[in-house]
């Protein structure tokens, strides 16, 4: 009787996992199937799940356009540059908040974290005139600065949670031996904080890579356009929408983030759970 109950429990648990997994992966499966459908099978009253005549024409057309490679390059520059600078700045800020005691430390940290309370559209209203004043509109540098502003508070908090869990005795011992503060940070603390730094870098990169609002507003030149606005303006419009091509490009532009997460998921999970449990 006990074995029968265990078998039923395992079967029910397996069915539940399959149902949840199917629900989560259904949009991705539909995206892949739509990308290999001809246009005549997409615009029908009752679309079929599987394509009757699979085709790779959407992918051939995608790689036949030079705009796609240009947009991928622009996204790599802006998202990669923004993530690297975010990691660097948030590392110094988080280490300062976690291991130093000075006047105004907590109010400054809370003020930085409060930026996450506001919608991104509201932050755009503040960022736009600042970049306009600095003559950085429609430039990659201006877009990178915008990405840093948006990702810095959350990145600082994640690194702060990691630095606070590092024993202060290690730092004090290095100070007693005569090590400078910069030596302690770069040679002792940062090697221990690699998982958290990878987490912040991957988080900021994914956010910048998937961004549409800021890149569409701050960049107007076609040669500087990133993958988000490029996808929207190339395949979707008022008169006609090429859903097969849009799905094909969506799959291609998702690969850098998917591959990055696949290679760095060990550090990503370790960085997210840092500070949650203390020994």
UniProtKB/TrEMBL annotation:
InterPro entries: BP-dep_ABC_trans_perm (IPR050901), MetI-like (IPR000515), MetI-like_sf (IPR035906). The keyword Transmembrane applies. Residues 72-264 form the ABC transmembrane type-1 domain. It is found in: Cell membrane. GO terms for biological process: transmembrane transport. Keywords: Cell membrane, Membrane, Sugar transport, Transmembrane, Transmembrane helix, Transport. Gene3D superfamilies: MetI-like. GO terms for cellular component: plasma membrane. It holds the Pfam family BPD_transp_1. Its main location: membrane. It is a multi-pass membrane protein. The chain crosses the membrane at residues 12-33, 76-98, 110-131, 143-163, 184-209, 243-264. Belongs to the binding-protein-dependent transport system permease family. MalFG subfamily. Part of the ABC transporter complex MalEFGK involved in maltose/maltodextrin import. Probably responsible for the translocation of the substrate across the membrane. This is Maltose/maltodextrin transport system permease protein MalG. It comes from Paraburkholderia saeva.
């Amino acid at each position: 009787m006990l074995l029968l109950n265990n078998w039923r429990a395992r079967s029910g648990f397996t069915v539940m996992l399959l149902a949840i997994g199917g629900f989560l992966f259904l949009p991705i499966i539909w995206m892949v199937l739509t990308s290999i459908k001809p246009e005549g099978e997409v615009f029908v009253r009752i679309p079929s799940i599987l394509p009757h005549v699979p085709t790779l024409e959407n992918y051939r057309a995608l790689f036949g356009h030079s705009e796609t490679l240009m947009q991928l390059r622009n996204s790599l520059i802006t998202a990669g540059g923004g993530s690297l600078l975010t990691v660097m700045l948030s590392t110094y800020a988080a280490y300062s908040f976690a291991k130093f005691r000075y006047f105004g430390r907590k109010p400054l940290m809370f003020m930085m974290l409060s930026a996450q309370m506001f919608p991104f559209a509201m932050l755009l209203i503040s960022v736009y005139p600042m970049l306009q004043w600095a003559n950085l509109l429609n430039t990659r540098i201006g877009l990178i600065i915008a990405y840093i502003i948006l990702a810095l508070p959350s990145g600082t908090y994640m690194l702060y949670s990691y630095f606070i869990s590092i024993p202060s005795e290690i730092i004090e011992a290095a100070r007693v031996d005569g090590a400078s503060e910069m030596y302690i940070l770069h040679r002792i603390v940062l090697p221990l904080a690699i998982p958290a730094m990878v987490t912040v870098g991957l988080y900021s990169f994914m956010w910048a890579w998937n961004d549409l609002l800021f890149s569409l507003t701050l960049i107007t030149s076609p040669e500087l356009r990133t993958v988000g606005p490029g996808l929207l303006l190339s395949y979707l419009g008022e008169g006609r929408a090429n859903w097969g091509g849009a799905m094909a490009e969506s799959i291609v532009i998702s690969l850098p983030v998917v591959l990055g997460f696949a290679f760095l998921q060990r550090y990503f999970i370790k960085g997210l759970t840092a500070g949650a449990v203390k020994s």
